[in-house]
Write a structure and sequence with these properties.
The structure is a homodimer of 434-residue chains.
Chain A (H helix, E strand, L loop, with lengths): L15 H9 L5 H19 L2 E4 L1 H14 L9 E5 L26 H8 L3 E6 L27 H8 L5 E6 L5 H7 L2 E4 L19 E6 L2 H12 L14 E4 L10 H16 L3 E4 L9 H16 L1 H7 L5 H12 L3 H22 L4 E5 L19 H6 L3 E8 L5 E7 L5 H15 L2
Parallel strand pairs in A: 2-3, 2-4, 7-8, 7-9
Antiparallel strand pairs in A: 1-3, 4-6, 5-6, 5-10, 9-11, 10-11
């Protein structure tokens, strides 16, 4: 438990760690937490529209059953949501498209089964954009209902930001966890590529797809990552010395809003004042082509993944997707696809060297604040390169932009240094969180 | 068309390329080919047991519909089978386990949809071992019914070897395409990791899973690979000069049967006599640990992938799997898993250098002939290292062992050199096929 101060917060605002600790000690019922989350949803869902599916009565009955048999485990009694491209046994999974309306898998995705095994309670399915691509669902940004929450894990981010659940699972193929975390003012984590199983999760572009975790504390991200990795949770380490941070403006720097550039420059200075060793880092020049390579690879793969839908349901696919990623992919030559994959592999090796002297890199999470208009979140690409490098990434809600909306900062580390990333992220978050 | 000589063969013995060419020219009906394949199945299935599901009447009706509307494309009128861990819209997909008996996906896997888009006719689902692991299905080796066909793509290999279909899709996580191809005397191809989409295919161990293609000619493998890559087929290149071949005995050499070692040594000499530049190649010493790393990674991932089955259906899982890969995986620490992944990544880079001077490496495909007893095919590991390296591999039916059973040889190339691999494979096959 973080301390008794948390006890004054409404139950739906508690962290997953605090909920599980209290449930495991017998001081809190799963039903009480679940009702608090459901009450928040009842109050806000009409505006926020974060959920593709939930069933209040079934959730309360499940929570009561948890309490009867004594829920235990690292997520004991923790309500969680999962993006609606992730299969679950007793709810529909519709991928954000009318083509799969009513689709009902017979089993849980690995990540859902692992969450339940750890004691978590699946509250419902969160809104995804169509096929986890750009065409938006109905979700609004909880900080300003005229603005987008970002996508494609729109509902997962909005639900966590609006205190409907403490944690939710999303996915990332482009910036689908990083971007909505930044826009919604919460923490978003993209794991090292390949670590967390995707069985039962809709494939989009298998060469870059990962799960994503949306949460409100770094400790909850670390806890949930261990649950999804299927290992005993390990507490986030306390740093023995201030971290070595590389400030990486990237080749996309000029595409950021001026205010976001200023916020990041300030953050780098503030971190140095806090004792971090902060130095500017240049990406290797070949990495300038990573955003283009990402577009090539994801387009090519998307247009193969969804062959069945293309062949049988073309007119039910949005024009955004048909004219965008699918058009790109269907016209891409195998040679171009292969060149992009070779470039990505080369840049992964080069980036290992670039990051060797740093615990983390500090970089942008999005081009700026969430735009007005819930259906236009794509904007200037700033995260594709990190997705392509397969590195772990965490987005922290450090700033407020000129309109008072949240703006995140992204920290990335070398592949498989996820635990080290969490330790630095908590250090940074404690010092700079707005 | 390969030549008029093929016309004397029964239709079920034709290659996919010849079938599609004749159908596209209007000289052959899909119905005639389908009936020939079904007749072969009717004659032999009682013994071979290659199929988890097929429906004779539905297949004939589908073929007639193809003929009515004029099937066209690179697989026009070609009947194909797919391993029963690959989803298809109007047939069950049961993963070789009673837990998922009657499971009926609502859509085609990407590879099935791509095959159909190219004009292919899905004849049925081929037998897989339980969850594509070791516990066998009922399939027998068509060359000797007392022997195993190998696994886990048992039915796909047996069906192609027994002339029930010209091509079939399998998968590979360990040696699940390489091994049954060798045991059944056909061609097995494992693509460069990550190239062919796995959407709608049961995940086993995502870090190494790929599709596999089983066929009887190198040209058919190349054709089907282009279909599954979603690109216009390109004919296999004719080599301008004899290939540079590295003969790689690997660290598992002593585990091979003596007769298999002799066959491979002879093949290396014969290829040199045919003009190939053949030289011995040593694997980097660290690659000696790849087989162990493969066991670690696949065990760890398998035990997470199937969390839902472990939690809800433990007693319906075979003891082979429970006491084998799942026990390994559930007791594996995340540190050990990470060490294995780091080793694999290091060896991939090292193997690029090892292969730089060769068009392909020649190596073993299995430890020897298919053993007697249809339920014991695992044997000494000889292919795990190549699976871990993510390299493309093709197994050619070059030899006969002391019992007169087929023994394959494996050729591997650098990642993304699949087309070059095909060109060398055809050159080798033309010179050495038994």
């Amino acid at each position: 438990m973080a301390g008794s101060s948390i006890m004054t917060a409404a139950l739906n605002e508690w962290s997953a760690r605090d909920i599980a600790a209290a449930v495991n000690r017998g001081e809190l019922t799963c039903e009480a937490v679940t009702r608090a989350c459901l009450d928040r949803i009842a109050l806000r869902e009409n505006d926020v529209q974060a959920w593709a599916y939930y069933d209040r009565d079934a959730a309360i009955a499940a929570a009561q059953e948890f309490d009867r048999r004594g829920a235990a485990g690292p997520l004991a009694g923790v309500p969680f949501g999962v993006k609606d491209i992730i299969d679950s046994a007793e709810m529909p999974t519709e991928w954000g498209t009318p083509i799969h309306r009513g689709r009902r898998p017979e089993r849980d995705a690995a990540c859902v089964a692992l969450s339940r095994k750890a004691g978590g309670l699946l509250l419902g399915k969160t809104v995804t954009t169509e096929f986890a691509n750009l065409h938006p669902g109905p979700t609004r940004n909880p900080h300003d209902l005229t603005r987008t929450p970002g996508g494609s894990s729109s509902g997962s981010a909005a639900a966590v930001a609006d205190f409907m659940v403490p944690v939710a699972i999303g996915t990332q193929t482009t910036g689908s966890t990083t971007r909505p975390a930044s826009f919604c003012g919460i923490i978003g984590y993209r794991p090292t590529y390949g670590d967390l199983r995707l069985h039962g999760v809709m494939e989009a572009s298998g060469s870059v797809d990962t799960l994503g975790i949306l949460a409100r504390t770094v400790d909850d991200v670390a806890l949930y990552r261990d649950v999804l990795l299927g290992v005993s949770p390990v507490a986030v380490e306390t740093l023995a010395r201030p971290p070595r941070i590389g400030f990486c403006r990237t080749h996309s720097w000029d595409g950021l809003e001026a205010s976001t550039r200023d916020l990041l420059e300030d953050a780098a200075e503030n971190l140095a004042r806090c004792g971090a060793a902060v130095r500017d880092v240049e990406m290797p020049p070949e990495c300038a082509s990573l955003n283009g390579a990402h577009r090539t690879i994801t387009g090519f793969e998307f247009a193969r993944t969804f062959t069945w839908e293309i062949e049988h349901h073309w007119t039910e696919i949005s024009e955004t997707l048909r004219g965008g990623r699918l058009a790109d992919g269907l016209s891409c030559s195998p040679e171009t696809y292969y060149e992009a994959k070779a470039l990505a592999e080369h840049c992964r090796a080069a980036s290992d060297a670039m990051m060797a002297d740093y615990d983390v890199l500090l970089t942008a999470a999005a081009f700026g604040e969430a735009p007005v208009g819930w259906n236009a979140f794509a904007g200037v690409p700033v995260f594709q390169m990190w997705t392509m490098l397969h590195v772990p990434s965490i987005t922290l809600p450090l700033f407020k932009g000129p309109a008072g909306m949240p703006v995140g900062a992204q920290l990335v580390a070398r592949r498989r240094h996820d635990r080290g990333l969490f330790a630095v992220a908590r250090w940074v978050h404690q010092r700079l969180a707005s």
